From TrEMBL:
It catalyses: L-dehydroascorbate + 2 glutathione = glutathione disulfide + L-ascorbate; RX + glutathione = an S-substituted glutathione + a halide anion + H(+); methylarsonate + 2 glutathione + H(+) = methylarsonous acid + glutathione disulfide + H2O. Belongs to the GST superfamily. Omega family. PANTHER family: GLUTATHIONE S-TRANSFERASE OMEGA, PTHR43968. The gene is LOC105900059. This is Glutathione S-transferase omega. Its EC number is 1.20.4.2, 1.8.5.1, 2.5.1.18. Residues 105-230 form the GST C-terminal domain. Exhibits glutathione-dependent thiol transferase activity. Has high dehydroascorbate reductase activity and may contribute to the recycling of ascorbic acid. Participates in the biotransformation of inorganic arsenic and reduces monomethylarsonic acid (MMA). Keywords: Oxidoreductase, Transferase. It comes from Clupea harengus (Atlantic herring). One of its GO terms (cellular component) is cytoplasm. Residues 21-100 form the GST N-terminal domain.
C-alpha cells in the first residue's frame, strides 16, 4: 500500500492516475469517518493508495473530484468517485466480494444499518462535550444523554448474547462505530462506559483486532493533534 502521509494542500499538484489494480482513498490521518474506510480496506486486504488531504486548505483538484470536499472519498481506476463513509464502506464490500463484512441476509443487513442510524445520533456528543468543556460550560446534561445512548448499545449486546454487534466475529457495524470509542480516552469520556459491562468488553475485544491495531494512534498522539484542532490550527501532519 502506497501512502503519501503528508497532506496535500491548496496549490499542490494532483496525484497521477490511480495505480492499476488498486483503488485510491482520499483521507485525513486523524479523521474518524475516514478511519472507517481505512478499517474496511485493511480488513478486506484491498490493495489501495492513500492520499491525505489538508481539510482546512483543500486543493482545487480535490474539490473537482468531490465538490463537498469531504473525506473519505474513493477514486477508482476508471475515475469513478464515491464518498460518505457508510457508502464507501458498502461499496468496497460489494466490489471486493472476498471476506464480506456485511451479512448476506437482508434482515441482518437491515439491522446493521438501523444500528448505524442509531449510532449517528451518538457521534455529535464526542464533539459537543469537549467543546462545551473548553468553553467552560456545564456538560453534565450532555454526558447523561451520552451515557443513556451508550446504555442502549450495551443492551443490544446483552440481548444478542454475542461478542460483537453483528455476531461472534467483527463485522461492518463494529468497524463503523469503532473510531469514536478509540478516541474516548482522548476526549475524557471513558468514564461514560462505567456500568456498561458488555460494551466495555466489546471495546477490549476490538482493541485485540489486527485491523484495529494496524489503524490506530496512541491517545497522546490524538491529544496532540486534537489540541491543534481545537486551537483552530489543525496540524494534519502531526508526528510525521
Amino acid at each position: 500500500m502506497a501512502t503519501t502521509q503528508k497532506s496535500f494542500a491548496k496549490g499542490s499538484s494532483a496525484p497521477g492516475p490511480v495505480p492499476k489494480g488498486q483503488i485510491r482513498l482520499f483521507s485525513m490521518r486523524f479523521c474518524p469517518f475516514a478511519q472507517r474506510t481505512r478499517l474496511v480496506l485493511h480488513a478486506k486486504g484491498i490493495k489501495h493508495e492513500t492520499v491525505n488531504i489538508n481539510l482546512k486548505d483543500k486543493p482545487d483538484w480535490f474539490l473537482e473530484k468531490n465538490p463537498l470536499g469531504l473525506v473519505p472519498t474513493l477514486e477508482t481506476v476508471n475515475g469513478q468517485v464515491i464518498y460518505e463513509s457508510p457508502i464507501t464502506c458498502e461499496y468496497l464490500d460489494e466490489v471486493y466480494a472476498e471476506k464480506k463484512l456485511l451479512p448476506s441476509d437482508p434482515f441482518e443487513k437491515a439491522q446493521q444499518k438501523m444500528l448505524l442510524e442509531h449510532f449517528s445520533k451518538v457521534t455529535p456528543y464526542f464533539y459537543k462535550i469537549p467543546m462545551g468543556k473548553k468553553n467552560g460550560e456545564d456538560v453534565s446534561g450532555l454526558e447523561a444523554e451520552l451515557k443513556e445512548k451508550l446504555s442502549k448499545l450495551n443492551e443490544v449486546l446483552v440481548n444478542k448474547k454475542t461478542k460483537f454487534f453483528g455476531g461472534d466475529s467483527v463485522t461492518m457495524i463494529d468497524y463503523m462505530m469503532w473510531p469514536w470509542f478509540e478516541r474516548m480516552e482522548m476526549m475524557e469520556l471513558k468514564h461514560c462506559l462505567e456500568g456498561r459491562a458488555e460494551l466495555k468488553k466489546w471495546v477490549e475485544l476490538m482493541l485485540q483486532d489486527p485491523t484495529v491495531k494496524a489503524n490506530m494512534f496512541s491517545t497522546d498522539t490524538y491529544k496532540a493533534f486534537y489540541k491543534t484542532y481545537m486551537d483552530g490550527k489543525p496540524d494534519y501532519d502531526y508526528g510525521l
